[in-house]
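Pipeline run #58 for the internal structure catalog. This entry was flagged by the ingest filter as a single-chain record with no existing model, so it goes straight to prediction. Upstream metadata was stripped on purpose; only the residue string is passed forward. Reviewer on rotation: M.T. Logging verbosity set to normal.
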Amino acid sequence: MVGVAGLVDDRGVVVVGGGLAGSEAAWQIARRNIPVSIIEMRPGVMTPAHTTSDLAELVCSNSLGSDGFRNAAGVLKEELRTYGSLIMRCAEGARIPAGSALAVERQRFSHLVSSYIKRSPNIHVLREEITDIPQHRPCIIASGPLTSHSLAQSVTGLTGEDNLYFYDAVAPIVTMESCDLSRVFWGSRYGRGGNDYLNCPMTKEEYDRFYDALVSAKTAPRHEFEDMKVFEACMPIETLAKRGRETLAYGPLRPVGLKDPRTGERPYAVVQLRPEDMARSLLNLVGFQTRLAWDEQRRVFRMIPGLEKAEFVRYGVMHRNTFINSPEILLPTMQCQHDENLLFAGQISGVEGYLESTASGLVAGVNAARLVLGLSPIRFPKETIIGALCYYVSTERTGAFQPMNANFGILPKSDMKRRKKDNRLAIAASTLKVVHDFEKTLRYRLD
């Protein structure tokens, strides 16, 4: 590794990691006319999940989640738009049809992010592996869930806390031309949005055969000393299936709002595939993140009606995700408690999800810029999704800490019952009012 001393501007900020969080953090700093250096180890050193050297590469799903205000993920997107998020700007530019979800064409999305970053006169990208936390301050560690072993050890040594970890899983991708279109049909997901998902309907008999094969299939080997800690939202399909025979039929394979045009009836279960690109040439098996061995994936997933001759361009894989014990380490500003010029962002900070990582990067970037400008770091309102996430990852708790994604449950207690959809809209409206008021204050103080 080449040391960063002498390669970065002493007046600026160092950001370690060029993923979603690092790119967003750098953008927020640069737009305030402060020099920033992104240090990204790819392509010199690759991770088990990345395949390119592009900034902000999406390695799991190409979906960024719901875009509606009845869902906290949709509110989070609007918050990011309000604060001038680069990631949201690029997501809209690479958007493809996916019903009520915001899905993007992966390559175009990462190319857009990389293009904006490269064109910024205030951002310099260094391609180096960082094995120790840089001495430069302010510094943002946004190295992601696949932080290299050496840097993870350096983080552990600095914070005095052991790294925690869980396993994340990636779903397979197949080609559209290899699907049997006589057995499948286009439709919506859960009755919302347009006909943007390719549906593989199953009878009870087909489902039972598939289920038996899935739960008995061989999984990829892992190190025996590694305890499996799997985040609930990324549960492998075979692990979820082992909770009970009907778990999938009432979970990711539930056929809500769908009728098989061949029979005119609702299928017993349905496997849905989401397009990876505008041309619909590649399809992602929704909810099928897995750690099955590759030969088993071919055998079992080709039992799905319409996928008997499926061509796999990417198999599902599992990889280790690293995150710090952030309640013992971070402040709601994403600063370290013991070194306030060192900040963390992204999944290593304890948030879970693409846009949650982006949000933490935005907060870290804003506050790193404020440190350079001689201003006090600012706490985002806890009545907002972004603020609530920052408070969640920095709040002490009695149980073991686990990563958190956007949800209404992390907002301050309300007298409204959050399970009712109308009240969710009221919560969203109240939250976004706080966001817009805060954005005016933030803009006046900083931009």
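catalog note: The domain at 13-169+322-446 is CATH 3.50.50.60 (FAD/NAD(P)-binding domain).
catalog note: The CA atoms of residues 352 and 405 lie 5 Å apart.
status: ready for reviewer M.T.
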